[in-house]
Amino acid sequence: MRGCLTVLLALFWGTASALPIEAFQLDGVEYDDSIQTPDEFLGYGLGERPIRHDKLVEYLSGLAETSDRMQVETIGYTHEGRPILFFAVSSPENLLNLEEIREFHLAALRGEPVPEEQPAVIWINYGVHGAESAGMDASVPALYHFAAAQGEEIEEQLDDAVVLVVAILNPDGHSRRVDHVETFGGEVPVTDPAHAQHDLWTEARTNHYWFDLNRQWLLLSQPEAQAWVSKWQEWKPQVSADFHEMGSQSTFYFHPGEPKRKNPLIPDQARELTKDIAEYHREFLDSEARLYFTEQGFDNFYIGKGSTYPQVNGGLGILFEVGAARGGAVESPSGERSYADNIRTHFRTTLSTIEGTLAAKDEIEAYQREFFESAATEAQRDATKGYVISAGKDKGRMTRFLNLLSTHDIVAHRLAEPLDVNGQVYEPEDSYVVPLQQPQYLMIRGIFDRVTEFEENIFYDVSGWTLPLAFDLHHAPLKNRVSRGDAAGRYDQDLLGELWEGEEEETRRNLAESSYGYVMPWADRRAPGALYKLLDEGLLARIAREPFEVRTPEGIETFSAGTVFIPFARQEQSEEEIRTLLEEAMNEFGIDVLPVSSGAGDVATASLGGASFEPGREPSVVLPYDGGLARYDVGEVWHLLDHDLNMPVTLVHKDRLGGLDWSRYTHLLMVGGGAQLPQGTADRVGQWIREEGGTLVAMRQAAVWAQNTYLEDGQETSEDEGPEDGRTRLNYAEMGTRDAEHVVAGSIVATDIDTTHPLAFGYTDRDLPSLRNTSLTLTWPEDNPYAVVSAYKPSGSVLLTGYMSERRRGEIAETPAVIAERYGRGAVVLMADNPVFRGFFHGTERLLVNAIFFSNLIDRPSGDYTAVEE
User: Fold this and answer.
1) Environment class of residue 843 by beta-carbon count within 10 Å: exposed (0-12), middle (13-18) or buried (19+)?
2) By the 8 A CB rule, do 105 and 117 touch?
3) What's the domain range around 86?
4) Nearest residue to 397 (alpha-carbon basis) of 476, 472, 508
5) Average pLDDT over residues 391-398
6) Total count of domains within the chain
7) Exposed site from 211, 247, 689, 752, fewest CB < 10 Å?
8) Quick one: pLDDT band at residue 609, thresholds 50, 70, 90?
9) Helix, strand, or coil here: 708?
10) Are 318 and 219 found together in one domain?
11) Cα–Cα dist 174/73, whole Å
């Protein structure tokens, strides 16, 4: 068999970019002629070029219509409107009873009695990274095989398993990749890796907003991930396989991963069972004398990846990586690599995953049931019994967090009565309790735990992601017994109010009557979107520079700085038109708009027409991309403004900034990466800020560049200046470990924020966690003691969760995190970190939003403060 197959493949490897369907059909297996082959549908062989998403949808949906072995469901849509298809593959009898099988499977995990010999549940991820097209296209021969293969072996497999296939996970990125391959493809294949066809890695890897979707299994800020994770939790598969491509110079990788680089929440037995399944991958790869490696290079630490997420949810997760051939074929150090062969390898390891799972079916079923039984036992033993959480008056932020918990199958209850934890009072109207005594105990810990000590200091991804910190929630552990000085509250079942079952469908709210005007509090993360809508409609809005009291129909009420006042006076619109616009904004964004009955309150600052209110300015934002700028960072900023706040953003290639009509824009947002501008462009931007009142908001590396370029007290700052003694000598073998020791691997750090500053309007306390993934630092302004909006805390308390060496802690301790200064008529805002990291750092995103809406509120001090002492 091997000899015949080798001869067949040799006819195509290195001489053609496609493989015929016979190369994908198993030796000795008959295939149903009534099932259309991929070749017949496409008109060319698999691997000649990536298959367009619309063709994938058409062919795979057609298989489901033709075959009684599969069902198809659209579980969601991408930002660009493409469907995400979900296939259930099994025997016809199993498919007729699919819901019953699912319910029995979940009942068994709850420890309930179920009929014996239930099918194994296997999940296949095809194509989370659009640039890794072999993963998507492998779904075609796989589903064709399930539909058309005949014989006792396939029938037994389908009797014994329900195979759940997501094809494909990232349609928008995949479509971008196909367009690129076709644009740069010619009649003659070019295997030179420098050829443009083999490029477009980051752009196609990501989704529409340039998010890496393989980091979204935990974070859920993107619709694609929300769709898969919801469906995954509906089934809780026993084994999940995740198919990728890596650099062309590499061979083939499969899990288990690095032995020591494993999240401590993952049981050791998961690794052993994964090794058992791996023997079936080895058997196939060895049969064709293929190069491969395992247990090297890839870890299982960050729980938000497709192969790691299952492992903290009771299943096994298996990562597959094949060296990329992004066109038809590409040269590599280990020989020419064929795209068609990559598809075939992923297809065959799909089959080996199923084979290995069924061979260890009893052991895997027992492991999964034991996982949840053990979780219940551990939850009983845990001194912490739950967490209380609150976002204060920010209903938008709280709802997003609760939705995230619910998607991960985590139960939360409304707090039933007020609770005081070390002076922080949690109120029932805006607080919730997450009890640990529930099946998702380990997942809750993965979300809430803070970890700062690690066996290894090498990380493939971030080392800290505690979500309540990322959301800047007030939160505290709850225990049965609270010791003196313990930062925990007392747990009691009486604290558990009604179960949170999703945001209630609100009926349309009517705006209350007012004869004077309305105020819109700034606390809710959705308020900026509403403000932009009002400004764009031409309404005059006034921004409170400081807290104020004002008369309302309910009496005197106090509002915080940043509150938006919309008067009836001096508006072009009629009172009725203003009410209509406000009511639309209130319902569209889910925010509160409250009536005021007078322009005066009980204190002088309350006069709504006074100097303590500043006219709001409609922002016009330009966001450069490419030219070395970090594409992920650009996408995260774009997503917040465009998707969440419904604000237009002008995306411009960085190299075109010099030719813009700058009179059109109020704000230039520059993210990290290669931020330096050509001298002529930098001079024009400086002129726009100084003379035309523009605002530059610069993040990470761009912040360092902007400080050195525009603010006189900036000094050149290096990410790592290295040891002073150039004669230091170390053993070469230590290089990897020592380098990793000082990498800032995505940790969460503590900052102190000045809540009176316009950029901090909406924050209620001075503690603000921030995501740090560079070692750069900003310098302190020398002549403006009011310029530092937030600063990192001292070295002993700066690290909240994740890994950071003592050296790096010392370097960032008590340095500025955010600086805001006037620069001529305009302003320069510097942010050492990315405030919208991966679309889930909702705590710091307000800094960016305030820099856009309130930069005109930043004042210049009138005195000389160079000699001021604290």
Assistant:
1) buried
2) no
3) 27-375
4) 472
5) 96
6) 4
7) 247
8) confident
9) helix
10) yes
11) 20
